[in-house]
Amino acid sequence: MAESGTGPRNTLSIRDNRTGRDYEVEVHEGNVIRAMDLRQIRVNEDDFGMMSYDPAFTNTASTRSSITEIDGARGILRYRGYPIEQLAEKSTFLEVAYLLLKGDLPTADELDTFIHDVTFHTYAHENVIKLLNGFRYDAHAMGIATSLVSALSTFYPDAKEVHDPEKRWIQIVRLVAKMPTLAAFAYRHHRGLPYVYPENELSYTANFLNMLFRIGVRDYAPSPVLERALDVLFILHADHEQNCSTTTMRVIGSAHADPFCALSGAMAALYGPLHGGANEAVLRMLTEIGSTDNIPAFMESVRKGERRLMGFGHRVYKAYDPRASIIKTTAHEVFEFTGRNPLLDIALELEKIALQEEYFVSRNLYPNVDFYSGLIYQALGFPVEMFPVLFAIPRTVGWLAQWEEMLEDSEQKIARPRQIYTGAGERNWVPIADRG
Ligand code: CMC
Fold first, then answer.
1. CATH number 1.10.150.120 is the correct assignment for the domain at 84-415
2. Interval between CA 240 and ligand 1 midpoint (Å)
3. In terms of C-beta density within 10 A (0-12 exposed, 13-18 middle, 19 or more buried), how is residue 353 classed?
4. How far is the CA of 265 from the centre of ligand 1 (A)?
5. Domain locations along the chain
6. Of all protein residues, whose CA lies closest to atom 14 belonging to ligand 1?
7. Is the C-beta atom of 368 inside 6 A of ligand 1?
8. Which residue of 74, 93, 213, 263 pairs with 234 in a disulfide if CB–CB is 3.0 to 4.6 A?
9. Would you write out the chain's pLDDT as a tens digit for each of its 436 residues?
10. Binding site membership of 314 for ligand 1 (Cβ less than 6 Å)
């Protein structure tokens, strides 16, 4: 930072009216200043220096990233440059996983090897079954899955070697491979059903559906329509740049915790109803509304600020979430096969009203990814408790790609925000008899 001069430059001039001093701060990438450049703005030598205050990081970039690009104003989402619409139509989930993790679409050989490696690591240690048996019969599937992922860290001590790229890759493959197994085990425990082990000749999603739903038959073949629908949902959920859970993954990872522990933390963040728990909240909301007749009263409570229309709104998208458009089409394809979910009529009516009403239009509240996904999950036979788990399986890929990128980024350090202290000044300890 330098004292300011004149003429057009790629800089920002700041006048500190407390001192009358002028500063010139460099502008990067067209609209970014480095927060540390503000530190030199001081009233005197003892001053800590200027900093920015940004609760919930609404206007702060915490990283450079080349993984996922979102243009929230135009409703655009791209993975490594590829539009989400093209990937959802033409790719498989494991191909997209490779793209996110490695940076480019795989060649046929690379994809074969990746599929082989993921398939090879689908089994979990038998002690995982013992852990599962410790959970109550009615334990929430997301709570179980989150705990099991963190427990896996104890099975793979080499996961601590986070600076070894080869060791990192092994953990990445293990996590992508084992997530469906752990998720299916959590579901079977919840239902009181025997665990079904992975079948290596099935596709990633078919194997998952097999572990979930096979009962009493030797061979289980899910409908190709449902298998593909789940694959598309997995593609749409695979990454979404610096959201709450991804930031959690990066923050925990920045302390060099192993990826199992970091990913378990990311899952815990995802579990919240404002984030990946929203799909579950949408289904509960639609069930509670029950009939299109009850929509006016429900919408009135939303307008009054008493309720939120779950599955609507997004921090970044101020247009229709492109994932929601694709899911809406997929929902219709699934319902042709499974029969129409009666809650769809309520959802469509809510969307119609919201897209016209001043309250929602003025706040740019459009359906997000969670608005229609739950309806498909329900049609596929999943209980609502599984919905956040179904989000976590594909997002595992995004979390790991972002974790890897963070560790390779020489600018990253342990994450450690500042605070503005608002508590008491120094005071002396008082004996308990003299308090109050
Ligand atoms: N229903 C009703 N009003 C809403 C909603 C909603 N779903 N979302 C935002 N608003 C209002 C909010 O009350 C506020 O109004 P006002 O300016 O009068 O105070 C205004 O819109 C801005 O809201 P905000 O809470 O400041 O926005 P945010 O960027 O902090 O929150 C959000 C984003 C996703 C948490 C929020 O829109 C929300 O709670 N949506 C419902 C939960 C949901 O569907 N979450 C899934 C997000 S997509 C999946 C994922 O990536 O996690």
1. no
2. 17
3. middle
4. 23
5. 84-415
6. 363
7. yes
8. 93
9. 444 456 678 999 999 999 999 999 999 999 999 999 999 999 999 999 999 999 999 999 999 999 999 999 999 999 999 999 999 999 999 999 999 999 999 999 999 999 999 999 999 999 999 999 999 988 999 999 999 999 999 999 999 999 999 999 999 999 999 999 999 999 999 889 999 999 989 999 999 999 999 988 877 888 899 999 999 999 999 999 999 999 999 999 999 999 999 999 999 999 998 999 888 899 999 999 999 999 999 999 999 999 999 999 998 998 889 999 999 899 988 999 998 888 999 999 999 999 999 999 999 999 998 899 988 999 888 988 899 999 999 999 999 999 999 999 999 999 999 999 999 999 999 999 999 8
10. yes
Nearest atom of ligand 1 to the alpha carbon of 270: 52
Residues marked active site are found at: 275, 314, 370
Phi, psi of 384 (to 5 degrees): -60, -30
The CA 415 to ligand 1 mean position distance, Å, reads: 26
Long-range CB pairs of 209-216, under 8 A, 24+ apart, other chains included:
211/180, 211/181, 211/184, 211/185, 212/184, 212/187, 212/188, 212/382, 213/381
Question: What contacts 297, CB < 8 A, 6 or more positions away?
Answer: none
> Is the pTM here over 0.85, yes or no?
yes
